[in-house]
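Service request form, structural biology core

Requester: graduate student, group of Dr. S.
Request type: structure prediction, single chain
Budget code: on file
Notes: please return the result as structure tokens.

Sequence provided:
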Amino acid sequence: MNTDITASAKPEYPVIDRNPPFTKTVGNFNTLDYLRFTTITGISVTVGYLSGIKPGIRGPSMVTGGLIGVMGGFMYAYQNSAGRLMGFFPNDGEVARYKK
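Core staff response, request fulfilled:
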């Protein structure tokens, strides 16, 4: 089974790295990626706290919601960063940075 996304879709923007490694993708996070990451985490912590039915369960519920938010926010930021490096999302900033 071919799992290479480039086999089914062609990049619309300049390709900087067709298969970016983890460190390059995380290093490519921009301000909007960090903003989305923290927003998703913050909302998840709040929802976790509010979903605690009893006062004694609110703390563990908030921590669980926060962990889910951290993972979801990181994955969303990672997907956007990798998409820009692979040319699937607008990447003017990356093209300017990596042309040097």
